[in-house]
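@channel anyone free to eyeball this complex?
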Amino acid sequence: MSQPIVVTVARDLEDLIPTFMKNRAKELETLRGALAGGDFEQLRQVGHRMKGVGNSYGFEKVSELGKRIEDGAKASDRATLETSFAEYADYLARVKIVYE
Amino acid sequence: MNDAAAGRAQFRVLVVDDDQDMSAFLARLLAQQGLNAETVNDGHAALAAIAADPPDLVLLDVQMPGPDGFEICRRLKASEATALLPVVLVTALEDQDSRVRGIRAGADDFLSKPVHREELIARVNTLRRLHETRKELEGRRLAAQVQEKEAIRKAFSRYLSPRLAERVLRESPRGGDVFRDLSQRALVVALFADLRGFTRLSETVPVSSIVPMLNEYFAVVTAAVHENEGTVFSMAGDSMLVGFNVPVSQPDAAERALNTGRTVIRSFGPVGARWQREHGLSTGVGVGIEAGEVVVGNVGTPSFTSYTIIGDPVNIAARLMQRAEPNEVLIGPRAARALGASLAGELRKRAVELKGKAEPVEVVSLRLGRAG
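replying in thread with the prediction:
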């Protein structure tokens, strides 16, 4: 079994995290659907949003992947987008949240 | 809750972001600061919420469905009602283009995404302090305005009837505008009223009674002047100069002057009768009225100024007053022409020689009994 990725989140945001994580899983589906449909504008928008929200909550990797997806969408770079989605899926599967 | 906390609780922030995780996050941080945070998730909802109940601060995402952050910001800054509402655009730190567009749209500040909580709190607190200072200054400005208006009203009430003072303030909120033209030609109706026989009376009554008696007489005259919205220009001894159609227009100025004369004589009747019983001398009010062009202005020195009317109609009205018997109104030719039908049935013409006039002047006399 792969190693968990530990993310520390402020305790005062704890009750917001279940919804946040559910939205990330939905987001990955949206990204995949948009790429399948060749909708690079939607990909850019979702990537841009991920970039903003991720690290606000403490999920640095979500912001980093968001930037890569936004840039990949602008360049219509399917390969980068596919790699990013795989990395995102792996991250969501492994992330372990610790509240402080 | 202490005062500071109560102040913060009243400070309302509207968070506008189409990403619900982001708006929930921002609202949470603001609530932790004791601020009242509401969230909406698109541009149309933002404009509707602000129009319905303007908050004290808006945190505005840039990319949104409906009108985007720039458009909302532009609209808020273009409207008088919301121009002073502080707007913080929430943009990606590296997005220089958005910041430039935001400045052009009138944004007051920027917050970087991802949002750093200390940065958010510091910016919001700065804007809250600015907002409170602005509100306090606005409150002081309004209070000063009310005080200024009250001072103008008091100054006016020396000359004008309360109703006329209200009208002047309504038509010229700074008041002074009405009196600004230091010399201005105007068509007015001048009325002089004088207490005939009072000089003799004042020689016989105790000195301590003279001022109360004069006050009683002037109370009668002033009430009649106020009722007809005249402007008192001067009081000297027992005579008073009143103007109509000045400082504001009164198309029925001549009728107002005539009514004032009638009311003064009628109202003074019982007072004169009492004085006669108490002091044994007859008095009555004589009134002179004339219309025409005069110069209206503030005459005097910087330390003492008198709002004055000067001109031939004023002189004629004064001389008519001197010639009027007790309980008589003498109306000069131009005022009589202006009154026209109002005088029908009761006019009695007579030629009067007036000082300074080569020819006798034909005037209208109205004799009023004490009963009316």
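from a first look: Chain B touches chain A through 16 residues (CB under 8 Å).
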